[in-house]
Structures are given as C-alpha cells and as structure tokens.
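Researcher: I'd like a structural prediction for the single chain below. Treat it as a standalone chain; there are no partners to consider.
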Amino acid sequence: MTRSDQQQNPIVIFVTGEKTLLKLSKVNQELANTLEEFRNEGARIYFVTDGTDKSAEWAEKDIQKAGFPQLIEKSITSSMMRGMHSLQPDYYLHLTTSVNVKPQDTIYIDHTPEALDFAKAEGAHVVSSDPQDQLVKSLKATYNKMKPT
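Model: Treating it as a single chain, here is the predicted structure.
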C-alpha cells in the first residue's frame, strides 16, 4: 500500500538522540522552519532518546534552548520501551507501536548507521543526520516523496 492510499495517516518523524539534537541545534533555523512546515501539514514529530526519563528531561531543556519546543509532540525514552535501545533489531518496531503508526508512515532521523539500518528493515524511511549540512535537504526530499499525491 502506498502513502497516497493512506491519506488519513499523518507522517511521523522521529528525531533521535542527544547527539542528533546537538547537530540539529547547529542547523537550527532552517530545520526548525522545515519541521514547522511539516507539522502544519499534519506531521507528528517525536524526540527519541536511548536514555532514562531524566535524559528526556534534560533533552526537553535542550529542545527548548534549540528553539524546537512547539514542534515536538512528545519525548520517548528507551525506559518507556522496557529498556530497549536503538541498536537492537526490534527497537524500531516497538517505537512505532508505542505511537500507533506503521513504519512506512515514518521518517527516522539518526546519526548511527546501524540504527538507520534497523529502522529501514522495518519499512521506515530513514534520514542520516550526518553530514549535517545535508540533513534538511535529505529530510525534505524524503518527506515530499511520502506526501500523498
């Protein structure tokens, strides 16, 4: 089934990890504008970290400082998913299940090739945050391919 067959399902974007967040803050305004545009079109955006609830609390503060607070729907920690982390094969499937979305309706942004491979194997669209100067361009291209026609 293609995205155009599922117009009622919003695109979900997972932004992962503190390292990714730090990279995102370096391309702050362009990325913030892009995520805001996607959110205005109905995309749901989550911040995901392998850390604890405390890590998510710190990340929330970083998100605030980076100018993304109004864009992030929710933070999800590995502790919320029974201690799983992004370098485990079933992680992505648990992540998508936790927000009630099909992997093919998602974009997963990460800096770790292995995590991106696991997400892609589950059917997700993936965007690497490395190199950071290509992040927004890659994200826009991926998002636009997923938009219903």
